[in-house]
Amino acid sequence: MMDTSHAVQNQNSASHGAPAKETVIFLHVPKTAGTTLNRLIEWEYPILQMYSIDPVFFIWSNKHLRKLSPSRLRSIRMFKGHMLFGLHEFLPQPASYITVLREPVDRVLSSFYFMRSYKLHPLYWKFRRENWTLEDFVHWSPRTDVHCKIIAGADYESPCTPEIYARALANIDRHFTVVGLSERLEESLALMKLRYGWKLESYSSFNVTRARPKKRDLPQSTLDLIREKNSFDVALYDFASKRFEEEVNRNASEVARITGELNAARERDREGSAATLFSLRSAGRKALSRAYSAI
Question: Model-level pTM?
């Protein structure tokens, strides 16, 4: 495991804007702007220095990762995708973690409506066949407190516990250089750019779930039920938000500058031909990254 002094060194270098060269592990929590971050990351590292967990065949992809030779693992500077915390214990080189969290009620809403509309999702046909509603999903699905379980390295399908929550907090403190917020993605990217020396020359959003109701359109009882079923995630999000605010304030001028640059890049890349070209090139780079990771 990474010792506390290494974690402190990582946090200090983020504050001083010093790029770091160690291996990075991006834990992609579902429906937290992770697809956008994945597409941006794929422009920051050479294809041969990335390992991308396949979002559809993620069980096979995680097993395949652990069969790679030590020399192949040592050559990889970015591991990313849907996986649980703990990969650093398996690697022959030092590594630090990043992730992005999302306000838990919004994440649950986005997750349910994405699962119900994306035919390649493992639960799509179950939801259609059994005609699950949002309330059914919140009541019966074991996919609660997803933030906590992924960051703690706990079983995804088992109930969350106070011990798992405490482990998630400890892991954030000891191993994560940046815990971003999807609601403040540009500032999150700015902290990552400062920490790892990323260029982030182009910027666009990917895989946004649009066919879903807003929180204001749902009964208060439904919102309360989501918070109750995800109470550990609500607490973890509050903790991460305070840490995030402190880190942004500590790097205020640089974060403001980079955020302005990102917003300008978004506007530039939003225009017709530029947006299409960036989307096509990103799709190609994604395909190459997944293909190489599967070898």
Answer: 0.88
Number of Cβ atoms within 10 Å of the Cβ of 238: 11
With DSSP H G I counted as helix, E B as strand and the rest as coil, what are the percentages for the chain, rounded to 5?
60, 10, 30
Q: In 3D, which of 212, 231, 216, 266 has the Cα closest to residue 39?
A: 266
Three-state SS at 219? coil
Residue linked to tokens 């096979």 = 60
Nearest to 202 by CA among 89, 65, 34, 42: 42
CA dihedral sign of residues 220, 226, 232, 235: negative
- Confidence band, pLDDT 50/70/90 cuts, at residue 132: confident
User: Helices 220-229 and 104-117 sit at what angle, rounded to 10 degrees?
Assistant: 100
Helices in 133-219 by DSSP H: which ranges?
134-140, 146-152, 162-175, 185-196
Question: For residue range 92-118, what is the model confidence (pLDDT) as tens digits?
Answer: 999 999 999 999 999 999 999 888 877
Structure confidence at residue 286 (pLDDT): 94
Q: Produce one character per residue of 171-202: b if its CB has 16 or more CB atoms within 10 Å, e if not.
A: bbebbbbbbbbbebbbbbbbbbbbbbebebeb
User: Tokens 């990351």 label which residue?
Assistant: 41
Q: Any bridge partners for residue 156, and if so which?
A: none
Distances (CA, A) of 14 to 162, 177, 178, 188, 233: 30, 7, 8, 12, 25
pLDDT tens-digit readout, 191-219: 999 999 999 988 877 756 666 788 888 99
Residues 6 or more apart in contact with residue 10 via CB below 8 angstroms: 20, 96, 177, 195
Please report, as a single letter, which amino acid is at residue 143.
R
Which amino acid does the sequence have at 6?
Answer: H
Helix axes 34-41, 185-196, angle to 10 degrees: 30
